[in-house]
Specification:
There is one protein chain. The chain is an alpha/beta fold and 189 residues long. The chain has two domains: 1-39, no CATH class; 40-183, Rossmann fold (3-Layer(aba) Sandwich). It is 33% helix and 20% strand. It has a six-stranded mixed β-sheet, with helices on both faces. The longest helix is centred in the N-terminal third of the chain and has 16 residues, at 2-17. The chain is globular. Residues 1-37 have low confidence and may be disordered.
Length: 189
């Protein structure tokens, strides 16, 4: 199943690049075949805030607390059966440390994005991961922005993005979406 999903993702990337699967090796002048398959499988984006961080001065990045390290491990366990194909983390160490256990579990490394450019991350995910499941580790302010950039849906103004929140966003080929709100790990204290 994983090979089928990855093959569908490769086909989608080729279609986006204007190359049919049969013409991939034919050079830059290859045309898009009318019969080229397009992935209609849903794209699933799991979005979480980084785990609990160490205290640090404003603007600093002091990594994860002991509780945060435990939450990062719990995240890896919680998404372990989700067939995650890629892990995106912001440029900050606390996000990287939260996502690395998942990346290690899938035999991959994290992909870094700019937490201030949710629009670019949304475009990158849509273009490169059709039919796949990806994990994004963000921040209290960037998680709502990413969900809005991907789905056009805003989280409620009073909806906090706590350390234990997990948002599972499924994007369908017809442009519709479904957003499921979950919790994982210990209640933040």
């Amino acid at each position: 199943m994983r090979r089928l999903v990855r093959a569908a993702g490769l086909t989608a990337m080729l279609v986006l690049a204007g190359i049919s699967a049969g013409a991939a090796g034919a050079g830059a002048g290859a045309s898009l075949s009318a019969a080229a398959p397009v992935s209609t499988a849903p794209l699933t984006v799991i979005v979480v805030r980084h785990a609990e961080k160490n205290p640090h001065p404003a603007g600093g990045d002091a990594g994860l607390s002991t509780r945060g390290i435990l939450r990062a491990r719990e995240l890896a366990r919680a998404v372990g059966d989700a067939d995650v194909a890629a892990v995106y983390v912001s440029q900050f160490g606390r996000a990287r440390l939260t996502g690395e256990p998942v990346a290690e579990a899938i035999g991959d490394s994290v992909r870094v994005y700019d937490a201030n450019r949710s629009d670019l991350l949304a475009a990158r995910i849509r273009a490169g991961h059709g039919g796949q499941t990806v994990l994004v580790v963000g921040h209290g302010d960037s998680v709502p922005e990413l969900i809005e950039a991907l789905a056009g849906e805003r989280l409620g103004a009073d909806e906090a993005v706590a350390y234990d929140r997990m948002f599972v966003l499924t994007l369908l080929a017809d442009g519709s979406h479904r957003l499921v709100r979950l919790r994982y790990g210990a209640v933040p204290g």
